[in-house]
Amino acid sequence: QVQLVESGGGLVQAGGSLRLSCAASGRTFSSYAMGWFRQAPGKEREFVAAISWSGGRISYADSVKGRFTISRDNAKNTVYLQMNSLKPEDTAVYYCAADPTFWVVKTTGGSWGQGTQVTVSS
């Protein structure tokens, strides 16, 4: 199993950018698909983006396509979420997820980090 720690959240104005990081422990990180989910107050947790172990397969939620970019550095055991053109509706706690299977990460997440708060002011 892999342990996940997110960082990089904060307060940003609409139109701004943030980069989230998720550091994973364990020597099998490179064999895991990774993903990002988010949960806004009063709403269910929703899928944001996922990336396969090799980086060759990537998927995004329609709401973030063209604005967010997921990437990974297997040498650093880290996955990133670059968020540009942020909107107030992007405000949420963002969670990192990991699972050996890309489809599982995309649909249900798998192992979770503790989350990092992103707040976008209008």
What is the count of DSSP helices, taking H or I runs of 4+ residues?
Answer: 1
What is the approximate shape? globular
Radius of gyration: 13 Å
Overall residue-averaged pLDDT value? 95
**Low-pLDDT residue intervals, each spanning 5 or more residues:** none
The biggest sheet amounts to: 7 strands, mixed
Order of helices and strands: EEEEEEEEEHEE
In total, the number of strands is 11
Helicity, as a percent range: under 10%
Strand content: over 45%
Termini gap: 39 Å
Secondary structure category: mainly beta
SSE map:
Elements: E1 4-7, E2 10-13, E3 18-24, E4 33-39, E5 46-51, E6 58-60, E7 68-73, E8 78-83, E9 92-99, H1 102-107, E10 111-112, E11 116-121
Parallel strand pairs: 2-11
Antiparallel strand pairs: 1-3, 3-8, 4-5, 4-9, 5-6, 7-8, 9-10, 9-11
What are the key terms here?
1 helix, 122 residues, mainly beta, seven-stranded mixed β-sheet
Explain how this protein is built:
The chain has 122 residues and is mainly β. Helix content is 5%, strand content 48%. The strands form 2 sheets. Strands 2, 4, 5, 6, 9, 10 and 11 form a 7-stranded mixed β-sheet that branches. Strands 1-3-8-7 form a 4-stranded antiparallel β-sheet, with no helix packed on it. Strand 7 and strand 8 form a beta hairpin. The longest helix has 6 residues. The mean pLDDT is 95.
